[in-house]
Amino acid sequence: MPSSIVIHTARRQLELFEDNIRINRFPIAVGKSSTPTPHGFYYIATKAMYPGGVFGSRWMGLSLPSYGIHGTNNPASIGQAVSLGCIRMHNHDAELLYQYVEIGTPVKIQS
Asked: What GO terms in the biological process aspect are recorded for it (predicted)?
C-alpha cells in the first residue's frame, strides 16, 4: 500500500494518501516568513523515534537536508507559521503518520 504526503502550507494542513485516496488530514505548523517551508517534491529520507527536544516524539527527515516532518514540544505552535522551515505536528499525529510512511515515501509541499 504505497503512501504519499501532500503538505499545504497556506492551509497549514498535511494530507496522507494511500493508493491515491486521502486517508487522513492533520493540522501543522510551517516555516515563518523569514524561514519559509520550501515548496517542491521530496521524499522521506530518514526516520527516528524520540529524537528529543523541539522535534517531539518522531522525526521524518526529508530528502532536502535539514528539513523534516516532526512532532513538537510546543503544541500551541500548531496552526502557526513559526518554524525554521520544518513541518511541525502534534506528537500523537506525528506518531500516527510515522507508522504509515517508509523511507522513500513521496512528499509534495505546495502553497
From this structure: cell wall organization; peptidoglycan-protein cross-linking; regulation of cell shape
